[in-house]
Amino acid sequence: MKNAFEKTWQAVKTSLPIMAAVLMLVSLLNPVFEKYYPRIFTGSYIFDPFIGAVMGSFSFGMPIVSYVTGGELLEQGVSLLAVTAFVFSWTTVGIPMLPLEAAHLGKKFAIIRNGLNFIFSVLVAILTVATLEIIQ
Amino acid sequence: MMKSFEKLPGGVKFFLATGTLYAAIFFINADFAKKSFVHFSETFLGMLPILAVVFFVMFLSYFFVSPELVKRHLGRDSGAKGYLWATLGAIAISGPPYVLFPILRDLKKHGMKYSLVAVFMNNRNVQPTFLPVIAYYFGTLFTIVFAFYIIVFSLLSGLIIGRLMKE
Questions:
Q1: Backbone φ, ψ for residue A93 (5° rounding)
Q2: Chain A within 8 Å of B157 (Cβ-Cβ)?
Q3: Does B130 touch chain A (CB under 8 A)?
Q4: Burial B74-88 (b: 16+ CB within 10 A, else e)
Q5: What would the pLDDT profile of A41-87 be if each residue is shown by its tens digit?
Q6: What is each CA distance from B6 to A78, A88, B9, in whole angstroms?
Q7: How does pLDDT run across A6-48, given as a tens digit for each residue?
Q8: Residue A128 CB: number of other CB atoms within 10 A?
Q9: What is the dihedral of CA B114, A97, A68, A32, to 10 degrees?
Q10: Is the ipTM, as predicted for this complex, more than 0.95?
Q11: Which of A8, A20, A92 is facing B55, going by the closest CB pair?
């Protein structure tokens, strides 16, 4: 019980300041950049998820932070294709974490896993949005 | 002063740096800084009840599922059950990658297959703990469809990596 509480408290302490800081940054940067979003994110089934996947690949942290960031970007006009790829690649691809992953689990594994998931993040975004368009 | 700042966790440093940025912008354009801060406050306060649920579910998962329990079910001969346990393990054990790497290396030493390591890492996105947050921002239908594809592609990734790493 005490151990579970300590671990949860540790997660709260780690993620809350980051989440708050990300939200603060998004609130600050969005008014500046939102006018460019329609020009960058045109709804292209290839380009939008690719850009989203690149952004997510260079970000890392607890998955919950990616949902908050992704949700805010979506509300500011970034396409769902880009945001889905961003959220997926946030947790499955980690370019800044690559040396650490290679050190713990091997270079070959780290390169294959990250490369494969970068491609998958684009595919998952396309499939998710296409499925939603068919269902709705 | 500088030494005590250096000792702070990375997240707190990031938060303080962002706060400093707000203070600097306030002196340049007070109206813009105020509007941004109000937007941040409303979003953050709106999220707090959901975060309370998230951290409570996280507490329950830490209480009921231990890394030792997962370790017992992820060995070399785990077969199809191993995929199920890797998926459940990823759902139950949350944390940033730099915390998970040592756990996974330890599990690997105990015989966990590369394919299961990949499945474990990729399924971190579908933790039920975080589902309320995804649903809050993206809707329930998106959450279901997205979670389905994450699981499918994590299993696919595990199978491909298993082949390429010659297990």
A1: -120, 135
A2: yes
A3: yes
A4: bbeebeeebbebbbb
A5: 777 888 999 999 998 888 766 677 788 888 888 888 889 999 999 99
A6: 36, 32, 8
A7: 888 887 887 788 778 877 887 887 777 766 766 777 778 889 9
A8: 25
A9: -150
A10: no
A11: A8
